[in-house]
């Protein structure tokens, strides 16, 4: 038989606290914001590269036209 006068012990364990959850959420937000800026920077680099490529192509086309015009002028001058 159990002794009725024996002390009862109750153990309460806490699984975590709110500060740990808040730190986790803050870290998650920081990672998401950092990822957004890295992706956005990559897109901006691609836009700049495309703009420079298009400008170089236009300069090349203009140089070809100028060369054709100079050649035509030289040909006309010799005849």
Question: Any overview of this molecule?
Answer:
This protein is mostly helical and 79 residues long. It is built from one helix and no strands.
What is the string of SSEs from the N terminus onward?
Answer: H
- The unreliable regions are none
| Largest sheet features | none
Q: Mean of the pLDDT scores?
A: 81
Q: Compute the number of strand runs.
A: 0
Q: Count up the helices.
A: 1
**N- and C-termini, Cα separation:** 131 Å
**What is the 3D shape?**
rod-shaped
Radius of gyration: 38 Å
| Structure class | mainly alpha
Helical coverage, percent range: over 70%
Proportion of residues in extended strands: under 5%
Which descriptors apply to this entry?
79 residues, 1 helix, 0% strand, rod-shaped
Give me the secondary-structure topology:
Elements: H1 18-78
How would you briefly describe this protein structure?
By secondary structure, the protein is mainly alpha-helical. Helices cover 77% and strands 0% of the residues.
């Amino acid at each position: 038989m159990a002794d009725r006068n024996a002390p009862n012990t109750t153990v309460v364990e806490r699984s975590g606290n709110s500060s740990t959850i808040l730190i986790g959420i803050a870290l998650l937000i920081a990672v998401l914001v950092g990822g957004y800026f890295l992706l956005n920077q990559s897109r901006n680099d691609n836009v700049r590269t495309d703009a420079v490529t298009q400008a170089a192509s236009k300069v090349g086309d203009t140089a070809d036209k100028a060369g054709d015009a100079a050649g035509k002028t030289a040909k006309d001058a010799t005849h």
